[in-house]
Amino acid sequence: MEFIISENPSSEDVDEIYQGLKRHNIPYIGDIKESHIACFTNSNDGAKLGGIIGRTWGSWLLIKYLWVDETCHKQGMGTQLLATLENYAKESGCRFSLVDTMSFQAKPFYEKNGYQCKMTLDEYPAEGQLHFMTKELT
């Protein structure tokens, strides 16, 4: 048996491992509906100005990335992106949302949008903090 370390695994390698884990989980949690989703906005010339990436899984919206171009900060774009994805998730049957954010990123933003910090990892990735935040989608 050989163990291989890859600092840049292929998407096929990642998907094969992910699919194996899903097959393992089915007897315990069933074949829960999952959907990868995104919402973004472009400038008139087609350049991305912001976006949010996540997935729905069962009754949860799992937010992976939220980004707004610096030229659009303080214009409400992040709030609109978040609300749009949350509304889509609610219409898809989600009742909760989960996001993690580092101490230098967007904890106050998520709190302003109804998220509560449930757990914090200190010294992440070295000297900062990683906050896990949830929200009930009502």
UniProtKB/TrEMBL annotation:
Return the Pfam families for the record: Acetyltransf_1 (PF00583)
Q: Which UniProt keywords apply?
A: Dioxygenase, Oxidoreductase
- What are the boundaries of the signal sequence? none
Select a single GO molecular function from the record's annotations and give it.
dioxygenase activity
Q: Any idea where the N-acetyltransferase domain is?
A: 1-138
InterPro entries assigned: Acyl_CoA_acyltransferase, GNAT_dom
The record's listing under CDD domains reads:
NAT_SF (cd04301)
Protein name, per record: Biphenyl 2,3-dioxygenase
Native source organism of the sequence: Photobacterium proteolyticum
